[in-house]
Design brief:
With 438 residues, this protein is α+β, with helices and mostly antiparallel strands. It is 49% helix and 18% strand.
């Protein structure tokens, strides 16, 4: 079998599928049928999806669910979530309902600054370069006026440009470190366009700078790119109530629950092995809303985890305390999100998701996403410190097992009754399915 192929991108969609089916499957016709089952019947809609990426053969579906009853800054939201993991949407909804009767979530955007850099090599006098930059700084703004014009009308644009000397870390290495405000767009294309113009201006002005030697004039731009590390694009979300108000049907000892809950967070603050899983739970909620709203969850993940390591050790993103019998629980998280541009104006389900969220601004979406992340974390820690995480998770996961074994309606009834009073595990469910079938 030869899995190499020449000119794959030039093949038609049908030819791509036929090559894949014949090259990798013992039953090519079955593979082709499955691939085509996921095509959209609306040809225009399918073409739209085909053009999102390259070498498209079909669509890969994930479910979109709704977590209702999120009371955020005294306003109710029903939050769309796209995720494949069972129990995530249920956990978010449960936490939302719980906190809606205890004052709800409070959220605020602390800052919304985004960053981009031009990385370049300069062999020469650093003081001379600093003087050059000082004299020519205004030209970088002037050169990008055509790019920033529309953004400035919306109140955004380039907020500052700095020259940074990094030669102590890498020989001859310098940066143009620029900060941006992109309002309701995530701003990646805008930032990168500005940066590439900065690079051209840097090279052009250096060539004309009389005080530079020939070698200094020929500085080398390595790359121009935005950064997904955004420590100054931060949203804070939190909840608080009297410790006694934490009580409900399952939290019968609220003081003990609160203390144990805080201890669980303190462990995640100092123990990286726990912090990674702790923050992964937060990202279950964050990523699900980011994906539903057509934003870049990979960029969000990278920025969030870098932020969690900003003090030299990977740590919890959420925190909690008790002061004067008031339980306070909060998160601070970097989020670069947009509600205009990109998939937000192209993907029909993204449009639906944003309408369900009442067409939020980028800052409102940051607040919603942070609250969902906190709600997810609360649900996980509540389970971990009380019944254990598997009880609720396996109740949701059992449907996946039943689907895998194609359980009938009657079998599902018998299985549901059996596991009301028996521990759920994958092996236990599979064994019971085999038992009732025999």
């Amino acid at each position: 079998m030869n899995n190499a192929v020449a000119g794959f991108s030039k093949l038609s969609k049908e030819e791509k599928i036929n090559w894949i089916a014949n090259e990798f499957f013992s039953n090519p016709n079955e593979a082709i049928t499955i691939i085509k089952q996921y095509w959209n019947r609306d040809e225009k809609l399918q073409q739209l999806h085909d053009e999102f990426i390259e070498n498209t053969i079909s669509n890969f579906y994930l479910p979109i669910g709704i977590a209702p009853n999120f009371l955020i800054n005294n306003k109710y939201y029903s939050v769309p979530m796209v995720i494949e993991e069972s129990s995530v949407v249920a956990a978010a909804a449960k936490s939302a309902k719980y906190w809606s009767t205890r004052g709800g979530f409070k959220a605020t955007v602390l800052s919304s600054e985004k960053i981009g850099q031009v990385h370049f090599m300069y062999k020469g006098d650093g003081n001379k370069l600093a003087q050059f930059f000082s004299q020519n700084k205004s030209k970088f703004f002037e050169a990008t006026e055509s790019i920033t014009k529309n953004m400035q009308k919306r109140g955004g644009g380039i907020t500052d440009i700095e020259l940074r000397n990094k030669t102590t870390e890498l020989e001859n290495y310098y940066q143009l470190h620029a900060t941006f405000e992109t309002k309701d767009s995530m701003g990646a294309n805008f930032i990168n366009s500005c940066l590439e113009q900065f690079a051209r201006t840097l090279k052009d002005e250096a060539q004309q700078y009389a005080d530079f030697t020939d070698e200094e004039k020929n500085l080398q731009v390595v790359m121009s790119i935005l950064s997904n590390y955004i420590p100054n694009c931060i949203v804070r979300a939190g909840v608080s109530c009297h410790v006694s108000e934490l009580a409900d049907k399952t939290i019968t000892q609220p003081n003990e629950f609160a203390e144990k809950f805080i201890q669980a967070i303190q462990i995640a603050e100092i123990e990286p092995y726990r912090a990674v899983t702790h923050n992964k739970g937060i990202m279950n909620g964050v990523d699900a809303v980011v994906l539903a709203t057509g934003n870049d969850f990979r960029a969000v993940e990278a920025g969030v985890h870098a932020y969690a390591s900003r003090n030299g050790s990977y740590s919890s993103l959420s925190h909690a305390k008790i002061e004067k019998d008031i339980f306070t629980y909060w998160i601070e998280i970097p989020l670069a999100l947009g509600t205009v541009g990109g998939l937000t104006s192209l993907h029909p389900m993204v449009k639906i998701a944003l309408e369900i969220l009442q067409n939020p601004s980028a800052q409102e979406l940051m607040q919603i996403v942070a609250c969902v992340g906190l709600a997810q974390n609360f649900a996980a820690l509540r389970s971990l410190t009380t019944t254990g995480i598997q009880e609720g998770h396996m109740k949701m996961h059992i449907n996946n097992i039943l689907n895998q074994y194609q359980a009938t309606t009657e079998e599902r009834k018998v299985i549901a009754k059996h596991f009301k009073n028996n521990t759920i595990s994958h092996s236990a469910v599979v064994d019971f399915i085999k038992q009732i079938r025999n």
